[in-house]
Request: fold
Amino acid sequence: MESNRRQTAVVTGIAGFIGSYLAGRLVERGWVVRGLDNERSGDWRRVTVPVERIDRDLASLADGELLSLCRGADVLFHLAAEKYNSSKSTPERIIDVNISATRRLFAAAARAQVGRVIFTSSLYAYGALGPEWMSEGDVPAPTTMYGLSKVAGEHLLRVAARDHGLRWTVARLFFIYGPGQYAEGGYKSVILRNFERIRRGERPVILGDGEQALDYVYVDDCVDALLAMLGPQHEGLTYNVAAGRAITVNELTRLMLRTAGSNLAPVPGPADWTAGTVRVGSPRLSAERLAWRATTPIEEGLARVWRWLGERS
Reply:
């Protein structure tokens, strides 16, 4: 590689929540960035740095167009996916994008001799509901179409590695949050939904007993993890992007009310399928091999989300 050549990254789903943060960090580091998004759950207004913008649906690209997308790239960050809770999602669409189009994208990346593919998988690949940590060595047992599609994406990388020598790393993301999370067509996390209620003077809603617990990671920490995976020593490995701490919705809501300076009392709502779940990832492998930990305290992350919502109003 020429020492004076700027590295090129392709980011699918670049106008999504995480993709837009990743694009900003890559450009800040001097990378040339080529980004693909169709705005089904993204928003190009999130991307505030200079990138080569491709307004297309991944599933609509012909094989030759996928090859052009990947040509000359040092790394492909494949973030684009039909999301689990998207208002526009169907099982057919999940298969079309997350499996069929992803297979063709990986084949194109191999033909274009992309240096590395970093694929964002999900905690839903595990299918576990706790209370034990989900660890990378666990056998995946997904219970949703989305989780199934993410496991398929991981295995498609292994097939492409065997058949074409494609180099890859997988990031299994847990609950990533931060300013700018929601766009039309996506879904609102409990953080965003209840902060919006509090800002309107409405009581936050807690479903069931509120003891369901989630592993939250601030978006900047998530991007740190993805960038740490660029090293060649991470080839062929799967990492949890998880804090290793599950926070209950009750505790989360108390922190949100304190952040907002509000004395509103939560209102109970009907229990849903998350009742009794503890969804938390083991951080051990990421700490030991990736030298990464989630470092943003939940209190600080919530304060940033609250300020962002105030700036929008």
Notes: The first helix runs from residue 17 to 28. Residues 12 and 58 are 8 Å apart (CA to CA). The mean pLDDT is 95. The chain has two domains: 8-175+217-241, 178-216+245-312.
